[in-house]
Design a protein that fits this description.
globular, 4% strand, mainly alpha, Glutathione S-transferase Yfyf (Class Pi), Chain A, domain 2, two-stranded antiparallel sheet
Length: 209
């Protein structure tokens, strides 16, 4: 499985061109691909796949991030800072430490972190999980069509933090608030979470930490 950032600020450089946004990056990669047989664009249902991808980006991604920040930033901000600067070089990590109080305030405003924010995003995510469970209720292997597509990539990548597939071992060692751990446990038996695990098993080689 291709890696996909939950943030839609991800980008790639192609010479002097900047391709920004996960959907645009997939389109760019498709245009450069040598093996057209492995396309992420389902021929018969591309519009439907892009609609699922759009909903994943605009609803699921936003509320996955907001729920995490709402539970972490007020009382566990050190965990966010450690994750953000995990791979940073020495001087970048030092600069991050100096700028962290400002960054913390920006994140709190950007994600509208206030009393009730976690519950609000959790409720929106529950509704999206219900929708996805409904799509999978007929026993289908993929969300759209009969092969792995950009729709599956979008949804599986965004829900991996909660599904905890073994192919992403870093997730298993992550510590966090009890409320997020309770979400992981409560949602673990949902059809969509079992589906995410199956997609990683089928399409992503295990990673080492």
């Amino acid at each position: 499985m291709l890696r996909r950032e939950a943030e839609d600020r991800s980008y790639v450089l192609d010479g002097t061109d900047v391709i920004q946004g996960s959907g645009a990056i997939i389109d760019w990669a498709e245009s450069k691909a040598q093996d057209r047989g492995r396309s992420l664009n389902p021929k018969a249902a591309l519009d439907e796949a892009k609609e699922v991808e759009r909903r994943a980006d605009e609803v699921i991604a936003v509320n996955v991030r907001r729920l995490a920040f709402a539970e972490l930033l007020p009382g566990h901000a050190h965990l966010v800072k450690s994750a953000l600067f995990y791979r940073a070089s020495g001087w970048r990590r030092q600069a991050g430490n100096v700028m962290w109080p400002v960054a913390w305030r920006i994140l709190m405003r950007m994600y509208d972190i206030r009393p009730g924010a976690a519950a609000e995003s959790r409720s929106k995510l529950e509704a999206e999980l219900d929708w996805l469970d409904g799509k999978l209720a007929d026993g289908r292997t993929y969300l759209v069509g009969d092969r792995f597509s950009r729709a599956d990539l979008a949804v599986a990548s965004l829900l991996a933090n909660f599904a905890r597939p073994k192919e992403l071992p870093a997730h298993h060692g992550m510590k966090g608030p009890d409320a997020l751990a309770a979400d992981v446990n409560r949602w673990s038996e949902r059809p969509v979470m079992r589906w995410v695990i199956a997609q990683y098993r089928a399409h992503r080689a295990p990673m080492t930490v």
